[in-house]
Automatic annotation (TrEMBL):
Top-level taxon of origin: Bacteria
Protein name (database record): RNA polymerase subunit sigma-24
InterPro entries found in the cross-reference section: DUF742 (IPR007995)
Pfam families linked: DUF742
Region Disordered, residue ranges: 1-29
Amino acid sequence: MTDGSTDGSDERTTRAVRPYVITGGRSDTGGEPLSWETLVMAVDEAGYPATLQPEHRMILTHCQGLLSVAEVAAHLGQPPSVVQVLLSDLIDWGLIVDRPPIPPAERADVTMLRKVLHGLESRL
């Protein structure tokens, strides 16, 4: 599919491979889905199986350091839901390790914050 321009360029407006083809028709990870904030990193291995599809290989290339699921999706130009399925495959195969997001800190004591604020205001 082209953009309909008459300048002779064949620039694509849609991807050649649809997301459901990349995931093999799967939309579920088979377990608890990875949150977008989950950090992932490729396992340091000499070689990866030759049977990996290109998207799996691209994920392994980008995940040499810690990246979030959302960052991996941005690098691949794929929806996060597709990347979650692909990352789950790689985790199951032992090629990616994940670190769950750090839970949000509990709300700080408001009275303590007010004391700190008043102390700072008195010094200014």
